[in-house]
Predict the structure.
Amino acid sequence: MEPLSPILFNIFVATSAMGLISLVGTITLIFNKKLLKDILIFLVALAAGTMIGTAFFHLIPESSSEIGIHTTNVIVILSFVAFFILERILHWHHHHQINDKHTIGTINLVADGIHNLLDGLIIAGAFYTDPSLGFLTTLAVVLHEIPQEIGDFGVMLHSGMSVKKAIIANFAVSLLSILGGIIGFLYIDITTSATAYITAFAAGGFLYLSTSDLLPEIKQENNRSKAWVSLGVFISGILIILLAV
C-alpha cells in the first residue's frame, strides 16, 4: 500500500477541523429553552450579517480577481435568481403549511453546503502551493466560519428544527468541506479554474438568503429593545467578517 500523500493528509486534517467547527452551535445547549427562544432572533441577525460580509468582503472580491467583476456579477445575479426559484419550488411543495419557515432552513443548508465545498477547494489549493499557506488559509477560513456557523445553527432552529436535528444537519453539511478538499486534491487543475465561478455562485446564495429571508425575519421583531440589539448584532456580524478577511 502506498503511503498517504502528505498534502492529502494536511488537507484532510484541515478540512476535518472545519467540520468540527460546526459543533460550536452546541454551546447553545447550555441555555434553557426560554433563553434559547429569546436569543434566536439575535442568532438570525448574526447569520445575516456574516453572510452579507462574506459575500462582499470575501467571495465577490476573490472571484472578480480571477474572472473579472463583470463575469462575477453575472454569476452572482444568476445564483440569486436560482436560489429564488429553488425557494419558490420548496414553498410550493410545502404550501399546505401555514407561515412555513421550513424553506429558510433548507435554503440555508444548500447555501452553506456550497460554501463549505468551496472552502475545501480553497484549502486544497493552498496546501498544493505551500504547507504554510495551507495552514494560514485554514486559520483564516476558521475565523470567519465560527460566527457564521453559530448564526446558521440559529437559523435552523428558527426554521423549526429541533436542537438535535439542527446539530446533525449543520455537522453533516459542514463535512462537504472534506469532500471539497479531496476533490481539490484529485482534480487540482480543473478545480483551480472552476473555483472562481463557484465562489461567485456561493456569494449569490448568501446574498439571497440574507436579504430575502433573514433580514425580513429580523424586521418582524416588534420588541423595540430586541430590534435595536438585533441591528447591532447584524452590523457586528458584518464587521467580524471584515476584520477576519
User: Anything to note?
Assistant: The chain has a mean pLDDT of 83. The CA atoms of residues 67 and 196 lie 7 Å apart. The two ends are 41 Å apart (CA to CA).
